[in-house]
Amino acid sequence: MELPPSVRAVLLDNDGDEDRLILFRRTVPGRDLYWSVPGGHVEPEDATLEDTLRREMLEELGATVDAITPLTTLSCLQENGVKTQHVYGCRLVTMDVALRCGPEFSDPARGHYEVVRLPLRPEEISAINLIPEELGTYLGEHISRLPELIG
């Protein structure tokens, strides 16, 4: 069964010294610790996948982004079907987590979304439980090239 598609952001932030990948460190009741990149489902009001990406960045991070670049499309097998994940690279312009407005932040059962920044090194990605696994594999293979892929 084909599930509604999603977009995911491989979001880079430069701290002045080096680019870093912005991720969520997820703690959810009853689950092992895992990590994810921002993103979410395509909604009927989203005219394009880029519109979905921009909306999700505002909802989940209070962020605006630029240099939006298609990176890959993943087919992720889930218990109830196959989920298509459109993965975009982008660069952070502004972020204010106080402006988060997604429904996941008002439901305690959804757990915590701690924003973290990881250096772009393969050992950093291989050391975490990144969900979906297919994205973790992609990032493990391309992490050091992300700045040139995204621009």
Automatic annotation (TrEMBL):
EC number(s) per entry: 3.6.-.-
Keyword Hydrolase: yes
InterPro entries documented for this protein: NUDIX_hydrolase-like_dom_sf (IPR015797), NUDIX_hydrolase_dom (IPR000086)
Domain annotation Nudix hydrolase: ranges: 2-132
UniProt entry keywords in alphabetical sequence: Hydrolase
Family to which the UniProt record says this protein belongs: Belongs to the Nudix hydrolase family.
Protein name: NUDIX hydrolase
